[in-house]
Amino acid sequence: MNGDPTGTVPARRPFCTIIPPHVLDRLATSDDPRHFEPARRTLEHDGALRTRRRVTAIRGITVEAEAEAAATTDTPNRTIYDAGHRTRLPGEKVHDEGGAPCQDATVNRAHAGLGATYDLFFKVYGRRSIDDRGLPLNATVHYGQEYNNAFWDGDQMVFGDGDGEIFLDFTLPVDVIGHELTHGVTQHTANLEYYGQSGALNESLSDVFGSLIKQYALGQTTAQADWLIGEGLLAPKVHGTALRSMKAPGTAYDDPRLGKDPQPAVMDDYVRTSRDNGGVHINSGIPNHAFYLLATALGGNAWERAGKIWYATLTGGELASDADFATFARLSAAASRTLFGEGDETRAVLKAWSQVGVPTS
Description:
Elements lengths: L7 E2 L6 E2 L3 H8 L4 H26 L4 E2 L13 E5 L9 E5 L8 H20 L12 E5 L8 E3 L4 E3 L14 H14 L8 H23 L9 E2 L14 E2 L8 E2 L3 E2 L15 H4 L5 H14 L6 H11 L9 H16 L3 H12 L6
Parallel strand pairs: 4-6, 6-8
Antiparallel strand pairs: 1-3, 2-7, 4-5, 7-8, 9-10, 11-12
Helix pairs in contact: 1-2, 3-4, 3-5, 4-5, 5-7, 7-8, 7-10, 8-9, 9-10
């Protein structure tokens, strides 16, 4: 199995953000200081953290999992900190498990989003927190000055407030919270390398489970779900509905400041680029769309059959850290056969991958 059975966190822990670098790059070239100043600050900050994480990985540094000291329970253990618009983590502790809702709506949303993520993974898939061993869920809000991002740093969640011009508070969409925390699940299981197709799979898995967390929390069927990632994050004057669309990749936004959503839906449109770690936030549209096609073909609640197939593929121990789309497709078909046999589910898996142009054999 690719996860480390000793309970240590693997050294290869990428710095994963919800806003792709190519979006911030575009904003940083704006003539309007309301747009370029927050974007440039965010890019500089993210670049420094990304480099720091890369150096840590090269040196082979590992840390003991926090769960070593945590009792494995059936309930989350959440703590929220306030950075006070600085970038020193974790900040001041302002809320913990069992505490009453506070006056800060951002704190309350972060607490609820951590809980919604825990609920899906535990109640549907039997997973006890991010590492399956009761890892405490910590988050910091009000991070930085007009910080246009949210990220999982390998140990905790961090949320910016946005600039109010392009992006709003990053705790608003629960699927953004679920997306970033799922990077932690991937870190503790397949530990997919954050480059090229394995990196795009890493991003796609976070989108898939982020969407499922939202659907589960709202009690939505596949037909009722919007299949958008980050709906509600874009400011009112931005021409767009979300950061990404699993239903129709490439249609989430088309704005003079952000540009047009570059995600492809099929392999014929695969984007070859050296930017964004080989296009991890761009080409994730292909496996995203495959999951959408599978879930809608099966109907009902997507977290049940379709979600269980994807979860089993991620956590089954056969997904190598450098897996490409075809490998994931083949393993998802095998997982479906194990779970459901050669029936409707497996036929739907094979058809979904065929529709996006990824072979399963």
